[in-house]
From TrEMBL:
Binds 2 zinc ions per subunit. It comes from Paenisporosarcina macmurdoensis. Residues 544-712 form the Helicase C-terminal domain. Residues 281-447 form the Helicase ATP-binding domain. This is Replication restart protein PriA. It catalyses: Couples ATP hydrolysis with the unwinding of duplex DNA by translocating in the 3'-5' direction; ATP + H2O = ADP + phosphate + H(+).
Amino acid sequence: MFAEVIVDVAAYPIDRPFDYSVPEMFQTIIESGSRVKVPFGNRQVLGFVTALKSDTDVPLDKQKPIGELLDIEPVLTEEMLAMTKWLKRHTLCYEIDALQVMLPSALRAKYEKILRIVDSNAELPQSVQALFQGKDSVELKADESKELLSTIKKLIKDQILVLETAIKQKTAVKKVRMVQIEADVNRLKEIHENVSNQAKKQKDVIKWMIDHAGERIILADVIKNLQTSNAVLQGVLEKGAATLELEEVYRDPYADRTIDVSKKHSLTDEQHLALSEIIHSYDQHEAATFLLHGITGSGKTEVYLQAIERSLKDQKEAIVLVPEISLTPQMTNRFKERFGSLVAVLHSGLSTGEKYDEWRKIKRGEVKVVVGARSAIFAPFQNIGLIILDEEHEGTYKQDDSPRYHARDVAIWRSEYHHCPVILGSATPSLESYARAKKGNYSLLTLSKRPREQALPEVSVIDMREQLKNGNRSMFSLELADAIRLRLEKGEQMVLFLNRRGHSSFVLCRDCGTVVECPNCDISMTYHRHQERIKCHYCGEESQVPNSCPQCSSEHIRFFGTGTQKVEEEIARFFPTARVLRMDVDTTRKKGSHEHILKQFGDGKADILLGTQMIAKGLDFPNITLVGVLSADTTLHLADFRAAEKTFQLLTQVSGRAGRHDKKGEVVVQTYTPDHYAIQFAKYHDFISFYNQEMMNRKQFAYPPFTFVVLIQITHEDVLMTAEYAHKAANWLRENLSNTAEIIGPTASSISRVQNRYRYQCLIKYKKEPMLPDVLQQLIRIYRTDWLKKGILMSIDLNPSSIM
DNA sequence: AGCACGCCGACT
DNA sequence: GTCGGCGTGCTC
């Protein structure tokens, strides 16, 4: 018996199955989808069994046996193995990358180099003895000194030491120590009798145990509740009154929370219609995709909940994706309220162990609904009834490193596999999805009304050029300042939005015009006042704020551009009574801090919530009556064909935060380009007109959805090398693709250097290019066999979410 | 000769 | 990706 194994080595010639013989002892239990340890070259690596067979073409002298079978129950299902092949072809990634992305990181291997003494009689040099500290094996870390490493090398050659690779699972199943109390009361009484009266504490414990015979209690709880000590308990255990056992437990990220149960809401006519279409398709076991276009506050979530309820009735499972779940506890709570313990939650805020535990609950079928961010689309359910992508237009559904998959595509693939519907929900659908819905590839469902008929908020667009002309140089227009003041007087809450964190976006010398740039990246450093430092938002480089210009030594350096920190100060200056909460990457780094800030705001502990994009989504507080967008222009002028779409989406999303309940909402949008159609259509909440206008632009410039786009990026430490190989790539594409494919570039990327690597890119635009996968595959081969050695890095992104 | 360093090929 | 093997070229 032989197993085809994909080994955990991401390299070009390795990206195929290797055949291993299956030792007798594993033959009855091994299955495809299991993880194995295999010898590979002169080391041990982790691998995934992708197939089993009785014969192999591998010559006898090359056949090696599987070393260890790591899973009795395979971690990958047949579906996942099929999905892997598809992902590999559609994102051009290594098969091992596609396999690993389906699993929680706890199941990935951690490799350790173990140095062991084989010849214990040999005399070891002082430095090596210090390393071993009397033990016969130690972990060899890569950061040891060069001299030590070369001495070790010599000792290995002389067969005094050996180097071994150990494979460790990153995180284990959590076990808790349980006290299993003897079930036989008479036996306990007997033990109680025999304990000497000197051991009073032990006697007390045993006496208590007589009343709890046969019970199984967490050790830590026993000690705590009986006010006793571990030493006393050990004594009791020795006498046989109880035994110690390990029990598997789940880490529970929601342990300290009580969640109320909620009933279903009654539906509006529109909601009802949408739901019945979805359920109809569900009953037919159709792999249909629905685009649920519902204005903000129109009750999309209630439609999701009731559709899931339907699938739960049949014991089927549901996957719900949300953009980045830790940002919207309000959303997860709604699912927990409705479905209780049937819900698993997966998001980046969980620890490796917590994610692993949620994953196991899903795999074992202990939960039926998973609510999670992008990677939750790979949830190991076996009988899916429904898949939902909320805010389907969000860029976070596209992974921006290998495998560069889009969760929407995976969702549709899985829906075909399980013959179940997919719901894509959004107030501002992506142009791609809306175009597909109009063409009939997706079914369009519309929610145009809010359930309690609340009006959409009034949006006023303020021309900041006029403000400047009239002598208002502050960041608040008169209109916005008035609106804020009014809310403060009335005790209502507001959200202020600015898409830029930090204090000032650049530091400029007023004598020579020098802008302080990151030493590693071609981008200006952002000033952070709290730590009094400047930071690069791309590579994380930090340094002291210079006292003088690094170029001309002038002391006339000033801070320009506005970030959230500066707004916070300005609010304090203009509205001294206002209580402000700032929410951006800098204030939410700690685990649970999102929730903490939102809870404070929800409890009315602040008047103003000030933040970056992360406050645009999902917030639902009844007392918010004003949303202020301090500068609508930041996303508008990006060098990306989706800039207008992103701006429209963002404005619509933030506007939707105001007046969701009984109180009427107002939105003030400040901009230097008030006439731009993205801003104008957002003012009137008019998605359809925006769509039509934007589609005309896309058509004119041949961008998606009229074409498909592939982004190829080349990076190298040397500019000339980068440009040279970018040209090679572009030329090669021009020679090999049909002349209906347009190849743009190569051009320097808009941030031309990041982390000391120069970046060039080219863009392929095509309508129909049947040879494209092959041509790209060949380009990858040239790259991996030749260019990679010269230090060139190339990435290919099919349907990129941004071309910057 | 002894070794550091870089390049190449193999890995079932 | 990571190892060993091998050639080159430097140093004692």
